[in-house]
């Protein structure tokens, strides 16, 4: 059901962003900063579920009206209720950003990103090391994984340089090696990352054309 709602929302954004008759392509910002919350629909050989909410930060520098370079940083904490195991993930991705500023109200974008995910598993004893009375001897395992993220979203103009992003959806494939932690950081991971928040746009590149 959630998948159907997501598809319907993206289709609605496509319809809203389609150029209207007599309305030309708008200029793109020189730079854009997105700040928002996100969650991860995690799919591994052992489990399928949402992680705890995290954050998503992205900066984009536009080379022209259609193509830019995006840097994306996100982090999640995955704590299973009633379990003494805590898993942290920190992700850094970089790649091309494609935008379609069809009108002054709605903007569509897509991106294809590559980078790394750092994962850390910590047991209850390990968690005590971060706070008093530590230190204690406990298992802690970490690992880095090559990561691919492909997706896009919709931005809605609020006023001037301020935009609202109701949805951003990305397919994220994480290549954790088996010897890192087969019980939690298993290989491979096929994840759906959802985010929403606010975008701040600065400058203007390209001119608006009208028919």
Overview of this protein structure:
By secondary structure, the chain is mainly beta. The chain contains two helices and nine strands. The protein has helices at 2-17, 124-128; strands spanning 31-43, 48-50, 54-62, 67-79, 86-100, 106-122, 140-159, 162-175, 189-202. Strands 1-3-4-5-6-7-8-9 form an eight-stranded antiparallel β-barrel. 27% of the residues are buried. The model is unreliable at 1-25, 131-137 and 179-185 (pLDDT under 50).
**And the CATH topology?**
Porin
Strand order of the largest sheet: 1-3-4-5-6-7-8-9
Tally of strands: 9
Level-2 CATH architecture = Beta Barrel
Category by helix and strand content? mainly beta
pLDDT average, as an integer? Answer: 74
User: In percent, how much strand structure appears in the residues?
Assistant: over 45%
Domain count, please report it.
1
Uncertain segments are 1-25, 131-137, 179-185
Helix-strand pattern: HEEEEEEHEEE
Sheet with most strands: 8 strands, antiparallel, barrel
Helix content: under 10%
CATH secondary-structure class: Mainly Beta
- Total helical elements: 2
**Alpha-carbon Rg, integer:** 20 Å
Dominant shape: elongated
